[in-house]
Amino acid sequence: MEFVNVSLPWMPDHYAMVPQLVEKQLKTEQEAALRHNSKTPRYLHIASKKKNRWGHQRSYKLQVYSFAGEHLPESQAEERSMSWARYKVAITKHKDSEQTSSSLYSQNDVWSPAVDFSKYIEDNESIEDQDLVAWVTTGFLHIPHAEDIPNTVTVGNGGGVILRPHNYFDEDPSISSTDSVYFSPGTEDSCESNRMACLAHETCSPTLETFTYHGFDGVMKFHD
Residues 88, 136: contact at Cβ < 8 Å? Predict the structure, then answer.
């Protein structure tokens, strides 16, 4: 996203800065290796030359919603064993010889790791019209505190990435779901449209009492 200075249609003599979507294609592995402290594009698409019925490139969007913490300085010798953490996202050409970003055996010799991820990017191969691999580093930092006892709250503590179709389909694919059910106003209680509304009519359904709730009656007493 970039800001551009444009003239206001209703006041041509006045200008305002407005955000504009700018497309840039990353063509090599080094261009597509986004460093830990670098600025990440707001929208990161892995696109195909094939287009949908609307003329847009069929693509998937990588949506990273958490990032790892500070990375070990590259000047440290043992950093090579975790060089994958240098990057928020790295896109490389698929190779059968590049299956993992690290190795269990690296812990035995962190100074000469069995897998050095940075080597995947050093050859700087083209990623145009290739089968690609997206290497994404996510994470979060949890600092122990008193509220962790007796149970650690997980709300707000999480990390991950979402791979979302973007112009990949011609429309929402769930429209074609064979299990879809359409409710029109007034049919919520119809047995034909909603079987859950007619459980009492089912042969093996239990007889359930009408649910009632009386708050804290009989449990707590409040006095003025």
Answer: yes
Q: Looking at the predicted structure, is the pLDDT value of residue 220 above 60?
A: no
Residue 137 burial by CB count (10 A; 0-12/13-18/19+): exposed, middle or buried? buried
User: What is d(CA 2, CA 99) in angstroms, rounded to the nearest whole number?
Assistant: 36
CA atoms of 21 and 158, how far apart (whole Å): 29
User: Do the strands 57-64 and 161-166 form a parallel or antiparallel pair, or are they unpaired?
Assistant: antiparallel
Contact in structure between 159 and 64 (CB atoms under 8 Å): no
Smallest CA-to-CA distance from 162 within 64, 33, 67 is with: 64
216 vs 221: CA distance, rounded Å: 8
Using the structure block, give the residue that is written with the tokens 């093996």: 204
Q: What is the DSSP letter of 31?
A: T
Q: Please indicate, yes or no, whether the overall pTM of this predicted structure exceeds 0.85.
A: no
131-145 pLDDT tens trace? 999 999 888 888 888
Q: Does the structure show a pLDDT above 80 at 125?
A: yes
CB 136, CB 85: distance < 8 Å: no
> Hey, is 141 helix, strand or coil?
coil
